[in-house]
Amino acid sequence: MQNILVIAYSQSGQLTEILQNFCKPFTDSTIEWVHVYPETPFPFPWNGPAFFNAMPETVLEKPVPIQPLKFERDHYDLIIFGYQPWFLSPSLPASAILQDESFRKLMKDTNIVSILGCRNMWINSQEAVKKQIASAGGKLIGNVPLIDKTSNLISVITILHWMLTGQKTRKWGIFPKPGVSDQDIENVAHFGKLLQEKIQANDVQNFQTELISKGGVNIPISILFIESRAKKLFLIWANLIMKKTANGGNRNFWINFFKYYLLFALFIVSPIVLTIYHIFVRPFSGGHIKRELAYYRGTQLR
């Protein structure tokens, strides 16, 4: 019998539903659920100022205070870590979990699977998670990212509708439903069953390879291109805002400046740059793209 720890922060409830379905096949295991709560809760639905105000600390991975974590055991056979990316980085509560000393002790020499529920960009945040797990001595054996599979710009509109209203519904009755699809949330149980089978066969090191072969790690090439550049820009903005407001500067001014920059970049600059990329760059970058996709689908650090 396996002793499994499932730990996560779920703001909207979608991630909790994903984790519950993933864990359904583990009927013969003891599962301990730890739901993480920030000392100052983040609002849901979000309001615009609160959402954008979280950007600098999120990108710089500065943990927020969370309520003390309590674990029933000193060791687990498997840890399932669920999280969401914010601004191409682990969410503030996720960073707090990964930097919590009691949790870091549990990660040492323990098999870990990360599970994400997100819009469509997760590779930069997962790189940060990989580094935190490795620095704690954990063994990341799998990563299961569930994404919104609609187009990038459409999903921006639908996710904003969900975040700002709290309603996971079709905006105006014409846009797709936001977030991870109901079908993908239900079907994640198949990946849980695959992990269970690998555990029983003492073959967990091949879990990610088989997960990939079954289509469990989806990275659109356009998203790969955007993420390879966007995180650097986010870091520049985060450091700029922290510097400009360190001595009492007007944080709201700089946060609003970033907000309008981001919207301009998403809806104006991004489509133009992607068109140029697909016409002039992508046809000559097949080998590089293949290597990048193989790396980001895996669990190892460079």
TrEMBL record:
UniProt KW keywords: Membrane, Transmembrane, Transmembrane helix
Sequence intervals crossing the membrane: 260-281
Source organism (scientific name): Fluviicola taffensis (strain DSM 16823 / NCIMB 13979 / RW262)
Protein name, entry field: Dialkylrecorsinol condensing enzyme DarA
UniProt lineage: Bacteria, Pseudomonadati, Bacteroidota, Flavobacteriia, Flavobacteriales
Keyword Transmembrane helix in record: yes
InterPro entries: Flavoprotein-like_sf
Highest taxon above the source species: Bacteria
